[in-house]
Design goal:
By secondary structure, this protein is α/β, with parallel strands linked by helices. The chain contains six helices and twelve strands.
Length: 280
């Protein structure tokens, strides 16, 4: 069994909630994750001090492989010259020198993709054909039984609620390619509320046999910027990948207990399996 802690949209800077961040740090070791996934927007305005605070926070999490990708708030918005010439300079300095990267751990291969588009889109994201090819190469020789996981900040499918979020251009093309690659999970953030479901909810014509791809979008874990049903709420996900099933437990922070507590669980069969009746 592989355990993941999935956090996102920390937004260090004015929106960051210090007490909630401390609650994350208390919870994280109790979950005993094998991998931490942080799916972008580490800062509010891509400032050096905000990145330094985000780095210090990450360094206090369990000492396990940490999968990171940049978000649109991790590139300068108002510092236009910097956004044009060196948009990821501070992200590279503090968080990761690589924007697109592969992590291989026991039980899984993660591909982190930089979905930001500093020169062409301020908020909405982009995934290029070159990045899809990068993904395909990373997964090409993946051994049997290894979970294939894509991490990007922006969403490839909208949450099935009444909020009108624009998905990335050519998102369906990317999802089609992920199906062909045998991707098991897509993890992301950006929406500031969670969505945990199956890609068939949005793209019923894209499938491998009877299955789509498990989609796990994380809300904002430590900021005041929650939206829609998670307005002013903070959430994170704990994911267990077993031979037969994938189980996602969704946690929400509650002020009265000053702690994250599980509020829902979602079970999906692993690729090639037909039910979730048996535990992995």
């Amino acid at each position: 069994m592989l355990k993941l802690l999935h956090i996102s949209d920390l937004h260090f800077g004015p929106p960051y909630r210090e007490n909630v961040g401390q609650a994350v740090l208390r919870l994280a070791p109790t979950l005993e994750p094998d991998v931490v996934v942080a799916s972008g927007d580490f800062t509010q305005r891509a400032k050096d001090a905000q990145f330094a605070e985000a780095r210090a926070f990450l360094d206090q999490l369990p000492k396990v492989p940490t999968v990171v990708v940049p978000g649109n708030h991790d590139v300068p918005l108002y510092r236009v010259r910097e956004r044009m010439l060196d948009p990821h300079g501070l992200y590279r300095k503090h968080i990761s020198s690589e924007l697109n990267r592969v992590w291989q751990v026991d039980g899984a291969v993660f591909v982190g993709l930089d979905s930001t588009a500093p020169h062409t889109a301020i908020s909405n994201g982009r995934i290029s054909e070159e990045q899809l090819q990068f993904c395909a190469e990373a997964f090409r020789n993946t051994g049997n039984g290894l979970a294939k996981i894509v991490v990007a900040h922006h969403h490839f499918a909208p949450a099935p609620d009444k909020e009108r979020d624009r998905i990335m251009p050519k998102a369906k093309r990317a999802m089609k390619r992920f199906i062909e690659m045998g991707v098991d999970l897509v993890l992301g953030g950006h929406l500031h509320r969670a969505y945990i479901g199956d890609s068939l909810d949005i793209y019923p014509d894209l499938r491998s046999g009877h299955q789509g791809i498990i989609i796990v979008q994380c809300g904002t874990t430590t900021s005041r910027r929650g939206r829609a049903r998670e307005k002013q709420r903070n959430t994170l996900n704990a994911i267990q990948i077993c031979p037969e099933v994938v189980e996602v437990t969704h946690y929400m922070y509650f002020d009265d207990t000053d702690a994250f507590e599980p509020i829902s669980r979602h079970r999906f069969p692993r690729r090639g399996k037909r039910s979730v009746d048996r535990a992995g």
